[in-house]
Write a structure and sequence with these properties.
Elements (H helix, E strand, L loop, with lengths): L4 H18 L14 H4 L2 H4 L6 E5 L5 E11 L11 E9 L7 E7 L3 E13 L2 E9 L12
Antiparallel strand pairs: 1-2, 1-4, 2-3, 3-6, 4-5, 5-6
Length: about 150
């Protein structure tokens, strides 16, 4: 099956959100103080650290410093379930760019955790990356039992 680049790029954030929701791409490590992954991956956990450095470990285990530059709330009024869904936007050096994938991330306040990022555009020597955190509860349908 052939898929166009446009369709792949459009689907990548959705796939990242699905993986994060399923818990395949995130884990809390012991140095997060034993907090659960769900607590670590909350809007309020990341928001105070916009503009701070995060260290991603590339495939060779070498550090790549990136900055959390933006957070976007992705919920819509149609999302009636409780929870949160947001994007984390990181920027990093173009000369040591990361591929799409799951990376070990270190932060001075949040500790060490795994995060899936998708690579975006490159401008003026920096690359933009996006991670989607989807913690929305499913909306019950009329056929669901209560």
């Amino acid at each position: 099956m052939k898929i166009s680049r446009r369709k792949f790029v459009a689907a990548a954030p959705l796939a990242a959100g699905v993986l994060l929701t399923a818990g395949n791409a995130l884990s809390a490590s012991p140095d997060t103080g034993g907090s659960a992954a769900a607590e670590l991956f909350a809007w309020d956990s990341f928001y105070p650290y916009v503009t701070t450095p995060f260290t991603f470990r590339n495939e060779a285990g070498e550090p790549v410093e990136m900055r959390l530059t933006q957070m976007t709330d992705n919920r819509t009024t149609a999302m009636a379930g409780s929870g949160e869904c947001f994007s984390l936007i990181f920027t990093g050096p173009a000369d040591n760019a990361l591929k799409h994938g799951v990376y070990t991330v270190e932060h001075f306040a949040l500790g060490t955790f795994d995060l899936m990022v998708t690579r975006g555009i490159t401008r003026k020597g920096t690359v933009r990356y996006e991670a989607i955190v989807n913690r929305m509860s499913p909306v019950p349908t009329s056929g669901d039992k209560k």
